[in-house]
Amino acid sequence: MDGTTQQSDFRPAGRLGSIGVSEILKIGAAAARLKREGRPVIVLGAGEPDFDTPDNVKQAAEQAIRAGKTKYPPLEGTPELKAAIVEKFRRENGLSYAPDEVTVSSGAKAILYNAFMASLDPGDEVILAAPYWTTYADIVRIAGGTPVDVVCREENGFRLAAEDLERAITPRTRWLLLNSPSNPSGAAYSEANLRPITEVLLRHPHVWLMSDDIYEHLVYDGLAFVTAAQIEPSLKARTLTVNGVSKAYAMTGWRIGYAGGPKSLIAAMRRGSRARSPWPAPSARLQP
Ligand SMILES: Cc1ncc(COP(=O)(O)O)c(C=O)c1O
Fold first, then answer.
1. CA 29 / ligand 1 centre spacing (Å)
2. Ligand 1, residues 136, 138, 240, 246: which to mutate, most atoms within 8 A of Cβ?
3. Tens digits of per-residue pLDDT, 126-182?
4. Which has more confidence, 42 or 171?
């Protein structure tokens, strides 16, 4: 050792080349700059509710911490939390899931990540109803899939039109990812709006549906929230119903998301969160 500092340039993994800086972060930075300049901006970037986490939730968390519930939980969530999720799906969505058909992760984002990591092979296509939360395309790409944008036209209330969906489906389509109410457009699907979409899916049994219901509780103008597996029970066997507490209860920092879906997918997602990387383990990669 001669005491000089050694230089070692960091080389990012090749897979990072497929994803850029989060558009949401760029929007946030641009909004902060405009605010500093004194411009009156309403930021529609990060989906942060404008109320605080309810007191009963804070108190329950404090009690749980004091009771020592601070150890590793089961990967797919504690039995008590899973039972509460089963009950939520039954009460609010009329969906009946068994405990082994629900799973929990650190936010709906991690649920989507686990689901795509567990299901996509290179070249598999995921149909995204544009405009969408930009993270969707990044997660699909990092999981090896190909995002396929289908524009939701203004004349259709920024909702996905059945004929546009039909045209986008190929033999490589694995998923349609639908988000209602939508971030960023706010477009929401009543039962009548959703029915033409479920009819297309019924005609294409190889296409699964990921229903991102995270904004379920933020509905206006008397709209009755519905989710696809509820209005078309025959799709339930190939639907992942995704939700979480971030938006409904202003708990964005708590990182709790959950999903209900077929047992085989839920089990694969659990395996995925144990051994997340689809690439060989470092020891294997370093073999000569
Ligand atoms: C459409 C959509 N889905 C999912 C999420 C992720 O939510 P979570 O905080 O549960 O990871 C967001 C967050 O902004 C979102 O806008």
1. 19
2. 246
3. 999 999 998 999 999 999 999 999 999 999 999 999 999 999 999 999 999 999 999
4. 171
Label residue 223 left, alpha or beta by phi (over 0 means left) and psi (-120 to 50 means alpha): beta
Q: What does the pLDDT look like over 230-246, one tens digit per residue?
A: 999 999 999 999 999 99
Contact 249, 57 (CB under 8 A): yes
Tell which wins on pLDDT, 42 or 276.
42
Cβ < 6 A, ligand 1 pocket: 47, 107-109, 133, 179, 183, 212, 214, 244, 246, 252, 257
Instruction: Give how far Cα 39 sits from Cα of 26, 42, 45, 46, Å.
Output: 17, 10, 16, 19
Q: Which residues neighbour 141 within 8 Å (Cβ) at sequence distance 6 or greater?
A: 18, 19, 147
